[in-house]
Amino acid sequence: MKAGIISMLLATILALVVCLPVVAQDDGSGTITITMTGASEFSINLEPTEWKPVGGEAVTPNTLYETATTWCTLTVGGNCNVNAYVAGEDAVWVEDPSAYSWTLSSNGENDIGVYVLWFKVKDDERGYVLIPELSQDSPGVDFYPSSLSPGPDGAKQFGLKLLTPEADFAKDGVGYFSVGDATVETHVTISAVAA
Predict the structure, then answer these.
(1) Could you point out which of 37, 42, 113, 141 has its C-alpha 20 to 30 Å from the C-alpha of 62?
(2) Domain spans of the chain?
(3) Would you say the pTM of this structure is higher than 0.85?
(4) 136: left (phi > 0), else alpha (psi -120 to 50), else beta?
(5) Distances (CA, A) of 57 to 4, 35, 103, 126, 164
(6) Which helix (H) or strand (E) holds 33?
(7) How far apart are alpha carbons 2 and 14 in whole angstroms?
(8) Distance between CA 81 and CA 194 in Å, rounded?
């Protein structure tokens, strides 16, 4: 039996505008809407807010997983266009984050303890785009090549692709992660600013 890791990618939504009050609301279904008020008002809504790789709960080393036909949808509300950005984090073992983690790849290559994460907007000619690590210096990579407009016509569907790390060790030619059947979790941050 191959040991695997359940990998859950949670999307956190942030809306950023200088010096404006913020209201965040979870409607109980997992949909989170963050609304900014002021001269430029906008909100971004993401649904669903969670993704588990297609093909089962457990993932195996050095394997690609895609959202396939299950797309997430980003919708903008309010009265102005927004520029949106995507960034990721290292993935950590939920039970003991300091004991086991995967580092988010910065170059699209996986390794032992290094995983890769991409996103693709359905109508974006760029195809899959590498998700960089979230930092204080950068909100991430552009979610879409142009600004996003409010309303259903401006909604964008996107998917994720995950390349798991190489095996921590092998036994009888089969690769394993050292923590066995554990839950590893990461967060993808989608942020927006008024365009």
Answers:
(1) 141
(2) 5-194
(3) no
(4) alpha
(5) 9, 33, 21, 29, 14
(6) strand 32-36
(7) 37
(8) 6
Region 16-33: mean pLDDT is: 48
Extract the tokens encoding 116: 């890769």
One-letter amino acid of 145 = P
Q: Are 14 and 190 in contact (CB under 8 A)?
A: yes
- Gap between the Cα atoms of 70 and 54, Å rounded: 9
Q: What average pLDDT score do residues 99-125 get?
A: 95
* Contact between 62 and 165 (Cβ < 8 Å): yes
Residue with tokens 């693709």, as numbered in its chain: 120
Do the strands 101-104 and 114-121 form a parallel or antiparallel pair, or are they unpaired? parallel
Task: Check residue 2 and give its pLDDT.
Answer: 31
CA distance 13 to 190: 5
Q: Buried (b) or exposed (e) across 72-99, using 16+ Cβ within 10 A?
A: bebbbbbebbbbbbbbbbbbbbeeeeee
The pLDDT of residue 148 is 95
3-state DSSP assignment of residue 152: helix
Helix (H) or strand (E) holding 171: strand 169-171
> Who contacts 107 (Cβ-Cβ below 8 Å, separation ≥6)?
130
Each as own residue / partner, the long-range contacts of residues 22-29 (CB below 8 Å, 24 or more positions apart, any chain) are: none
The C-alpha atoms of residue 146 and residue 110 are separated, in whole angstroms, by: 30
